[in-house]
Amino acid sequence: MKKPTTLRTMLTLTGYRRNVFLISTAFWLLLHSTPVLFGIFDRALFDSLAEGPEGGGVNPFLILLLMGLLDTGRIGLLAGGVITWSRYFIGAHLLIRRNLLGWLLTAKGARRLNGSPSEVVTRFRDDVDDVGNYLDSFADFPGFALFAVLALVVMLGVDVQMTVLIMAPLGLSVLLARVLQPLIRATRRRLREATTEVTGFIGELMGAVQAIKIAGATEGAMRHFDGLGEVRRRAALKDSLLTESFRSVSDNMVAVSTAIMLFLAADRMREGVFTVGDMALFMSYLPYLTGIMTFIGNMLVEHRRAGVAFERLDGVAVDAPPLELVRNRDLQLDGPLPDIVNGMPERVPLQRLDVRGLGYTFPDGTEAISDVSFTLPRGTLTVVTGRVGSGKSTMLRALLGLLPQTTGEVLWNLQPISDRSTFLVPPNAAYTAQVPRLFSDSLRENLVLGRTLGRGALDRAIDTAVMRHDIERLEEGLDTGVGNRGVKLSGGQIQRSAAARMFVGDAELLVFDDLSSALDAQTEAELWRALQQEDPGRTYLVVSHRPVLLERADQVLVMEAGRILT
Amino acid sequence: MTGNIPGTNRARQNILDHGTAHPLRLTVTLALLLSSVGLQLFVPQLLRDFIDSAMGGQSGAYLRGIALTFLLAAIGRQLLAAAATYGSADLGWRVTNRVRSALARHVFGLDLEFHKSTTPGNLIERIDGDLTALGNFMSQFAVRVFGGVLLLAGVLVLLWQVSPVFGAGLLAFTGLEFAIIMLTRKRAVPATMQERESSAELFGFIEERLAGLDDIRANGGGNHSLWSFNAVMRRYWRTSLNAWMQRLTVWLSSYGVYVLGFVGTTFVMILMVRSGAITVGTGFMIFQYLYILQNQIEIITNHMQDVQKAAAGLTRVRQLMEETSGLAEPGTDTLPAGPLALELDGVTFRYPARGDLPERVTLSDVSLRLRPGEVLGLLGRTGSGKTTVTRLLFRFYDPVRGQIRLGGMPLQELSAEGLASGVGLVTQDVQLFQASVRDNLTFFDSGRATDGELEDLIQRIGLGGWLRGLPDGLETRIGAGGSNLSAGEAQLLALARVFLKDPGLVILDEPTSRLDPHTEELLQLALDRLLHNRTAIIIAHRLETVRKADQILVLDDGRVAELGDREALARDPASRYARLLAAAGADTSLDELLQDGGAT
After folding, report:
1. Cis peptide leading into residue A427 (ω within 30°)
2. pTM for this prediction
3. Is B42 an 8 Å CB contact of chain A?
């Protein structure tokens, strides 16, 4: 299917709270086009003043009254516009972010971030902001377009030759602007890259504070940071220079247009063909018309940037269907809190798991694992062991569908699993990574993850993971907030929490990537005993080096250089 | 590590001090600005002349002369304004870069408790987001708003010349307008601050979940995360709307006042033209000046949003600068080379209360003496205070009572680099960067070691083969991408980092617990080499690991339960250590042994 155009994507985006968008655009339409009347009033006013009180023209005070009323009305339009627009605008930003986050968190198929978390956050923030800028223009465009048309009609009605000659420089400024645009794009891109370098580095710095301080590397790191700042400064200045040139081009053209008008008016006014009022009208419209030219030029730039932004956002979402990111959805921002949607798959009791020819290659081309095949019968413990770098963790992740573009297949009870990433989750399978992550919620929320549990399931999981003691020592027990990335807990506590989180799901297959560092051998033995007692039918696939575990295992797989040694 | 690093005293300077660092640039920019303003004020006078002359029957040539003058003045004005903008943008970036640097250093120097309570995403938003808002404000402030103020003043003076009625009236009107703007703006700043805060919260949330994407997906926790996100979105929604409405109040009130001013001025103008007091051309000129006035007020008002955002940013930056570390200033001494002696004298420590964490006593009256080159085995259950001792040694915290001396020197007297270069730490948690191997080893400081030294080091660690297998050698990027590094390899690399600085005291905090037996062997060999002729503290999970220690320290609930020469303790059947050895197999849990084996 052809990729949707930027325009189509934007129009789909306006479908979010469409009524609000349309009403708001109506307000802006009126607000932006009513200045046409100001020009007409200005002309009437000055012609009246030039003719003098005996002239018998329209009463200037009456004209002033009308202008006052028009202004008052426009205040109302402004209020209406902003009140409606803000609701649409903020919501649209949230919509894209929510859609992208939702896709990453819950969509089928393996997900791999195409950059560090802080880089991807930049997509969420800056690229969505770019789309927002274009949205602004979308709402303004109808009003400006209407103004331009009406104003030109009026001006042509006064003097065709003059209008054409005055508009010529403005047309020229559009051409000049288009020449500058590719340059501006390039510098903008460089500025954005320099900014990403800076923010990315801050993220890294702050994520590794301890390590850097301990190594006494603070000065070096800071100097590197300053260097990145310099690079950005220079990129920002180039950007500023080009932007200012761009801006001054259009303003200079206004001056040229006005000068042309004065030249031509010199004779016409002496002949009485062109009045002071006409001059007032033209001078009233010129700035607006230039502004609109600039606006259209900007809008084209914003259009392109929004296109780039959409491409980048799609790059994060990878295999999302077209227009997924701008798909309308009720964000449930008002009213009662939404319920948690529990998307757990159906439990299919495991009789046997077959892995056939599993393979994965890194994006840079190096092979991680290849041709991995084995069988896990129900109720057995299989231990995977091997040297550092032999591919054990990668194999587990590939099996669970956490890695994209793997080769081979996995069969559950001899049926191939079509999408491992959504099937091999609780209650079918559960996983604890080698370096597990917790989130800045309460401990309870981290363990439960919003799942509906049987009675006592949480308590059992805590006991099995040998966490009872730890929880008693936390000042608010399970409700204690664990801090960013679980930083308020010790390393061992984080691992045991991850284990408890895994147990809570009561899954058919438990996959552990090396629990050893969280537990000493004695406690680990206790854990296994408890697990066996709880459900002898459960199947385990574990990476470990503990002799105790290797002894217990029904099957040991040794990996070396990405393959299983037979 | 010390709470303050060299140069952070500079960080406490006012931001304005940073602003006056470039006097020449500032002066030139101001001069350009003034010239530009002058020309803009001149232009309407030309128009008056044109109209009156045209109505008065002046020659076409004369009028065309005015048109030409007009053209030159208008274009000249634009060029000057553009130059002024460039100058101020340059100033703006230089100044905010300086502040950004100072802020980063300051934040970096804050204590551990601070860094536990904020996400990196949040910090990015505050350090960069706020300062960029501030920078944009400063880039445009001088020319747009300051220029606007000058123009306003100029217009008022010129209109006063026409008639004091105009002058006085418009002065009052302008004053009223700005008073209203100031009032409404003040009310809007807290709202904008909250808007930025909830924005930072939003992105902090996203970043945290992205970092744990696998964990969430593999445990089917996606929907729960989205549900939590809903709460974050709601806060963002509410605060953003509120901020918008506050800003709307500003716009509406200033537009309203403008309308009053416009109607009033035009009324008087009409009267005066009709009575012959002023010419039509003058009336037209007044109209033009009024237009400039309206424009400038609009521009200033539009940038009020930036002013608000910048003020909010400034406040948040100041708040961040004012976060104090719980630690005193570092000293200036350095440590001698070679293995260091370590002394703890009656060290007592409690984690400081911060936010919702209350004080907890973790160490009470701990004393020990390690001679240079000696190895101490530190045993204790989880939570007995072992890791706390480590943190005190790195001055992440200061003891509440007692003193720590390294190489005979109290820690407080050591400079930050001095302390950092003297003590090395090997843990199971490895923090690597999204950067090249070289940058990871040298922490972005290429002066630390030559490529040859790095390669040699990697070979000695046992990663020689791994390095040769990398596509770009030392340049290869590693880190969060994770493709070319397993946990064990990462551990070895972190060990290499410690080797690089040749510390006199090494602390090993269960570094082998994540490794398979083969790699553990490799690491053990490397460690044995590392420990040769160095003082060391080994925090152990297994008795096997402290088999070679010279002294043994057993911590129980923050107190010294037993301390002494290892062999002597092993021979004494009444000692805790001897009883542990008796009860244990090589692989047994210390936690369990100490739980029920420890005699009280």
Report:
1. yes
2. 0.72
3. no
